[in-house]
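Lecture notes, unit on protein representations.

Consider one protein chain, 317 amino acids long.
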Amino acid sequence: MNYILLDLEWNQCPTGKQDENPALPFEIVEIGAIKLNDAREDIGHFSELIRPTLYTRLHFRTQEMLHIPAAELNRSRLFPEVFADFIAWCGEDYRFCTWGSMDLTELQRNIDYHHIENPLPLPLFFFDVQKLFSLLYEDGKSRKSLEYAVEYLKLEKPRVFHRAFDDTWYTALIMQKMNLELVKDYASVDYYRPPRSREEEIYMQFPRYSKFVSMPFTSKEEVMADKVVTATRCYQCGKMLRKKIRWFAGNSNSKVYYCLCICPSHGYLKGKIRLKKGADNCVFAVRTLKLVNEEEAAVIMEKQDAVRASRRKKKHR
């Protein structure tokens, strides 16, 4: 399997958010990619500018970062042509690797805007190198900038940042430096196209937690009433668990729910459900279950107490 290190640069509406097209808030203007083989050796490059068709004038922030001459951009090919060549260049057996999770979302949004059939696999698994960096060198939760990671690893900086191929080049250096064996089990899954049915729902087990991505529902109430979504099973032993604290919303408008369970063999498990909006205003759930210690379990208990106190306060106003 090859690794496709990918970075995109995009433009946005130059006159402000009020004038943007909601179907395409970010229009891709550059694709940069490096192909690494299974030994993480550099075996190919892809780099091309893309002529915008929606936001034909660069937003001032895009211009400040990219410094792309308008004449050069206007001579470039259109997205459908460049994307077709890019996918052909990727080949058959590969996995995308990106710094963060936004690039694949915006790539697919541009695919849909141009009415191109999406050729990417479903579900779409990828390596979020930013997450892997945090797991290897920090606390696993923080998300640092690409330049921070380059400096942390004491890598040379002969190239600029914030151009697609240059950022890809740095991401490849970081990935080559990593002990990938320690984090290769922590693949990410893209949420742009959620599972379409119960049969397609995604279950992922990692050394430190488990993840589940649900099919779409019509409302958050329907999601939280679904027994598959709210099920709590220990990912270490497979035992179905009763909840010490039932699922509760983080606040009145929350899209995040929490629960707390106890496994007789492995201790406390913290549950977290994030509600996400899909196409056609559907709602789907991303549920994680993670073993936690007594101090972390106490945080969930305190959070529930705070939510209850807030509700009582509102009730008596």
